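2024-03-11 09:14:02 INFO worker-7 job=invfold-0412 stage=load source=structure_tokens
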């Protein structure tokens, strides 16, 4: 059966329609290309096999500085360090067209779809983390620029990155891209608190009647709040839940161009936002959405990673864009939420907020079976019984 996939990828000047069946690729790939293919990599300039650079602790390295017009089409990185949190403690920054503020400023692992400093496989349309067991970080996000492009890596760890390998593959254009939109990515984190009347983490009416959601936007997790003109294309959401209770009753609310509540883009639950249903707890990866990392504890206790890319129809805005997410129904839960947003907009830095230092990016303490057993012991004492629920 012939399946046609029209992949209108983010910007009109890089539109490539692709038709796929089991034997052919029928597309514009055969048309002449009006660019030269270029690369910057960490290959050994002395001809040896030390095809990497070193980045000292508390040090920075510019891995790519490009002059002229073009589009970065692919970035590949792998690294080695004695710091077990090196992926969270290392920051990737990108600057376009001579700007002094970064359009991209995100912990390295989180940018490529790796939460909590971990390593695991990810398969999506724009970000792919491949073998060995998540060692290879790949971005296929197109990143245009008119005059200059710069990519900087900062090692905020105390120890050296002993081996940092990279490719930056790009197209060198004769004329600038026919658009003033540039690629942006930002990192945000909130450890939420319950917005219930008695301060308890109620959900599914386990601790009494579930409260109604307030008809406003107070106390919600802010995924992205930006001013300018552009379109939103993707989201990685890293959820660390301190309770076995389902974390995903929270609705998404997306406000475009300063619209009032309720927004046109009002959702029905976190898993629904990520194109899944009924409280999933299984690894699933599609080009546009998925769960590459799921909780390995009881219920939904612990870490879950969700992603979605709006490639079929990016969320366009002319003046402003605000993306909010409830933490549990009516903001009833304490959850450690981290988002990485991906979007294009004009070079407007009115909403720029610097990335928090590494001390504020560390993981929350793990809650494990020992803590659950202590909870059970307290429950038994309260009930005065052996089993605990007679």
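2024-03-11 09:14:09 INFO worker-7 stage=emit residues=390
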């Amino acid at each position: 059966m012939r399946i046609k996939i029209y992949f209108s990828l983010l910007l009109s000047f890089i539109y490539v329609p692709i038709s796929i069946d089991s034997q052919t690729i029928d597309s514009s790939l055969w048309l002449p290309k009006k660019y030269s293919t270029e690369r910057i990599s960490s290959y050994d300039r002395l001809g040896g096999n030390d095809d990497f650079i070193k980045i000292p602790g508390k040090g920075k390295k510019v891995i790519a500085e490009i002059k002229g017009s073009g589009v970065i089409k692919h970035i590949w990185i792998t690294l080695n360090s004695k710091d077990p949190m090196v992926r969270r403690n290392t920051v990737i920054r990108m600057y376009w067209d001579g700007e002094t503020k970064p359009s991209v400023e995100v912990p390295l692992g989180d940018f490529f779809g790796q939460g909590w400093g971990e390593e695991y496989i990810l398969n999506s349309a724009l970000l792919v983390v491949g073998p060995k067991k998540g060692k290879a970080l790949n971005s296929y996000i197109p990143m245009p620029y008119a005059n200059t492009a710069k990519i900087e890596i900062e090692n905020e760890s105390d120890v050296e990155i002993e081996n940092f390998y990279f490719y930056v593959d790009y197209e060198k254009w004769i004329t600038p891209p026919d658009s003033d939109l540039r690629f942006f990515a930002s990192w945000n984190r909130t450890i939420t608190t319950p917005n219930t009347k008695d301060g308890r983490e109620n959900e599914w009416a386990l601790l009494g009647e579930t409260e109604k959601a307030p008809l406003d936007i107070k106390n919600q997790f802010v995924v992205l709040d930006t001013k300018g003109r552009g379109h939103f294309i993707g989201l990685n959401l890293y959820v660390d839940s301190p309770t076995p209770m389902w974390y995903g009753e929270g609705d998404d609310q997306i406000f475009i161009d300063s619209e009032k509540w309720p927004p046109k883009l009002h959702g029905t639950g976190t898993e629904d936002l990520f194109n899944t249903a009924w409280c999933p707890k299984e690894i699933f990866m599609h080009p546009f959405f998925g769960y590459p990392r799921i909780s390995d504890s009881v219920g939904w206790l612990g870490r879950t990673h969700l992603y979605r890319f709006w490639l079929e129809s990016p969320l366009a805005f002319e003046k402003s864009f605000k993306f909010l997410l409830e933490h549990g129904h009516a903001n009833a839960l304490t959850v450690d939420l981290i988002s990485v947003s991906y979007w294009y907009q004009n070079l407007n830095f009115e909403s720029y907020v610097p990335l928090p230092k590494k001390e504020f990016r560390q993981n929350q303490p793990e809650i494990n079976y020992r803590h659950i057993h202590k909870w059970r012991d307290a429950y038994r004492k309260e009930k005065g019984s052996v089993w605990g629920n007679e």
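2024-03-11 09:14:09 INFO worker-7 stage=report msg="The longest helix spans residues 369-383."
2024-03-11 09:14:10 INFO worker-7 job finished
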